[in-house]
Amino acid sequence: MENLFSIENILFSIGGQGVSLLEFVAVLSGLGCVYLATQRKVLNFWIGYLYNFLLFFLFLQKGLYSSMLLQPVSFAINIFGHYRWTHPAKDEENREKQLKITLLNKKEWIIIPSVIILFVVIWGTFLSNIHSILPDYFGVARKPYLDSFVTGMILLAQYLSAQKRLECWGAWFIVNVTNIVLYLLAGLAFMPMVSAAYLVLAFFGFAMWRRQWKNEND
Hints:
It is built from 8 helices and 2 strands, in the order ββαααααααα. It has 218 residues and is mainly α. The chain has one domain. Helix 1 packs antiparallel against helix 2 and helix 1 runs parallel beside helix 8.
């Protein structure tokens, strides 16, 4: 188990940068989770729990503390989404007796950007000083405000996914584009390539969900 969670356990290299077993397994679980989500399969949540667990250790070792601390919260959102998809109210059910796909309302479109901006300012400031607050546990955070923006967008995307909102795929698109930059700056070679694959899945997921949304509202 210790070997699995070590970034020194290199499987192969890309562009002169090693890809660890931890990173590789995390990538496989992440891709599997997203693909299942595009198909609206409840199994995506079970894979998502494993993904959260693996990413926690990966980001800890890479100094991406905001992304690391995000994982327990993501785990909780996954539990929430798992319950919401499988236990909808009667007026929220689709023909499959699962949560149907819906859209954000005008009020939510105003509130969400304000919350994201506020989160980035507060969390980014905290991360910028985390090495001073907890010097025995954390070093200097890399790109704290960019990391905070990604964290905020991931939380938003996960929450919208848990509620089966069609706009979740737009949030995932922003997350993946930003993640490519963040991962490159953090020295990760394999994850930026995977984020590009996630972009493709996001487009695919949007098309699939949009078709289903139209069917559910005919």
